[in-house]
Fold:
Amino acid sequence: LFRVGPPHREPLASEPPRRGVGDRMGRGGIGGAVGMAMETADSTRSFVKDVKRIIIKVGTAVVTGQNGRLAMGRLGSLCEQVKQLNFQGYEVILVTSGAVGVGRQRLQYRKLIHSSFADLQNPQMNFDGKACAAVGQSGLMAIYDTLFSQLDVTSSQLLVTDRDFKDPSFGDQLRETVFALLDLKVIPLFNENDAISTRRQPYEDPSGIFWDNDSLAALLAAELNADLLIMLSDVEGLYSGPPSDPQSKIIHTYVNEKHGKLISFGEKSLVGRGGMQAKVVAAANAASKGVPVVIASGFATDSIMKVLKGEKIGTLFHNEANLWECSKEATAREMAVAARDCSRHLQKLSSEERKKILLDIADALEVNEDAIRSENEADVEAAQDAGYEKSLIARMTLKPGKITNLARSIRAIADMEDPISHTLKRTEVAKDLVFEKAYCPLGVLLIIFESRPDALVQIATLAIRSGNGLLLKGGKEAMRSNAILHKVITGVIPDAVGKKLIGLVTSKDEIADLLALDDVIDLVIPRGSKNLVSQIKATTKIPVLGHADGICHVYIDKSADMDMAKRIVLDAKVDYPAACNAMETLLVHKDLNKSEGLDDLLVELEKEGLSSTSIYFLSFVSKIAHTDCIITTDEKAAEAFLQQVDSAAVFHNASTRFCDGTRFGLGAEVGISTGRIHARGPVGVDGLLTTRCILRGSGQVVNGDKGVVYTHRDLPLQ
Structure:
């Protein structure tokens, strides 16, 4: 096996965020804190740029381990993050659980060392919760004080009970004290004083002003006018079901109307009191009072910093979340429905009218070539400055002559036989009862493609020719190129059809919403990495057509003409190395080891900067899946290869670079599929069509097949 280059998979680059969606303005904040890279923030988290006062609630499962001992690593990470925020000007308030757990562990240890041998035979380790809280509170605060002191941060302890808040003057006194501490850059540490609480367990007595540290944190967030409440738990956020259930999905933005009745809660933590259900209630309560809340993992070492960078981690509770969800869903659905409606108008046109649209697109591309090239050059320059790989930049570059070639390809597609309503079969079922099978459009296509802006033109052309509506999502690196190409193409679509026939999706956020529209979108075609294809298949009910591997092989058989082999191998690798149909692996028959012809070939490859690292000589090739070629003069070996290698395209004595819709005479392609349903290989117009059955009768009824004489006679196509 002679590997002549890395696999040329084409990953979908990350997308730019949307901005300004339902921002909750804080009280000023400090714009550049935490190296706040807002350009990578999720649009729903854009409000964090205005956050200044933060309450961080730490759950018992974060503070302690399963054995009840303090989790010093997690506490250290927490204190490090708080110190960083404190030094950057944030006002940080901690609400910490864990006193009961720490106290129980200490009491267990004390009882153990003072137990007799008889006591050890029947240990009794049940302790009163209030006693545990009284013992553990001082120890927990001592640990915090020690850790913060090492970081040159001062902390303070404030113990409160439910009864305190029943005093009308307590709130004013609390705010005065806390604000004074914050002005001095001291970290207030709150905890419910369980040692003297008069209430029963919170799940038995949900009455009162607050009933656990989760609800205390929510109460303090409102009382102290916080800009953000972060609740750290032992899971990454709120899931649609128990986190241990593989079918459960994390909910990044909680909307009570959408998720309230759908979520099922699993077992709560063994060391905590309230569990996730208590956190959800507290978070929803705080959000309803105008304080955004994020439930995130306290096990990660940088969760707090990521939240404040606006990254999409954990579960966000926001009082405007329902508006975001309605707006996003409406935008995605409206775009898909509009494409579907326009496609139906397109299908009503005559063949000549649809052909004219394509010819007008070809003309418009040539007329606007300078503007298109200018935008593409701006994309290329930005990609180079950003340090993108050369292969990606090569794919996104519209070289001289590319627009002319695209226009020529469009005109070729326009001149093809009209595929819509093309009859494939006619059968006389019975006298005056005729069955027909004909092509028809799939409906609405969602294409997610990589850096190549020319793919937008090809896909749009094929969609129009096949009568389909189209939604396009390209990579951010070709944003300007995609935008102007979309504008040029839709600019010539007649009003009788509608400009919304082809929609351009500009935000990564909208992809998830579109993938949920299985009642409107009929096929998804992702053009990118294996991970992208697999991820989309796992997150949508819409049929997905996409290649999951892009490895192309050339196999030199023992009877190969080595001059021919040299030409094919060099072309397959060197003609356009960034293409998905470029050769990546060369397989050589074992009998050619150290042959003069092979040595010459290796020299030529080395001249192209492709040096070999290892060679394995094989006698046959196994399943590959994309495009594979055999070079041989042995017709029997060639036929065995063509019949037995299970790939989307198999060649004999021809470069893998021929695996292309245009070169195959398809006019263009939306991609190369390595699947089996419903298209395989380069997907042209026919891959964007399905069939429907038409029956033309004269009043016939089945009636138990009485009196029906079936003829099933083939009829000529009309």
Q: What stands out?
A: Confidence is low (pLDDT under 50) at residues 1-41, 269-273, 612-623. The radius of gyration is 33 Å. The chain has three domains: 46-99+145-326, 332-418+441-538, 552-669.
